[in-house]
Amino acid sequence: VRTATLTRHGEKETWEEVEFDWRTHLIHVVEEKRHAGRIKSAVLDAGPFIYDTFDVFYALRALPLELGKGADLPVYASRKIYGLHVDVERKESLVDPVLGEVDALVLRPYDSLDGAPQEDGAGEVWVTAAAPHVPIRLRGWFRTVGERLRVGGVRVTLAGFTRGAPGWPTPRFETRPAQEWPGRTKGGSPVWEPPPEVQRAREIAGLAPGKQRIDGELAPLRECRDRQATRRWARLVLASTPCPPPEA
Questions:
Q1: Domain residue extents for the chain
Q2: Cα gap 114→81, rounded to integer Å
Q3: pLDDT of 39-52, one tens digit each?
Q4: Per-residue confidence (pLDDT) for residue 73, from 0 to 100
């Protein structure tokens, strides 16, 4: 699984590409600060399993949500593994412009790092009480990573919903059931003993958490073909990417 994110804040522009390798249970991260002409690469331990900030919502919907109960999920963000705890606080009946009259569960998420609460956001999420727990509304606030800028008054509503057509063929790819996080972290890294098959996969790949990895196939590195690179950029990528040397 590979995700890419482009963040713009004023004149600053950061591109991050993250690759989740489930054979080795490693996370490969390439971060390019385009405004500064710098690139970083790292390999992180994913632990037994991990979600990113996109698919965690799908995983949450697959859990058996019940009133008065909660769920804990590990989420990767900013080179660390955070804990996402979600409480099912109450049940409400509401009228939604898309779904009509519907019973909804109100979820309140909390994030933590190494078990300590993090004040990086707060809010509520409404999902249908019946599976597949379709998200209906969201409201709250959050802080941007790094800049510590608080963004308040965030409101999201369901714009449309299309049910799966009956008779569609079953997907052939392997699916995994959503799981709750059974372990713990230290410094944002998982504390666990990889099983023999995972250790063997890491040995074959020649990778371990903390090692640097420059991959010429990643999009941030391909871009150097289209523009002059800084000297720091050139030192990192010339060995693996046909990139022209920087101007003298």
A1: 1-47+192-248, 51-187
A2: 9
A3: 888 899 999 888 88
A4: 86
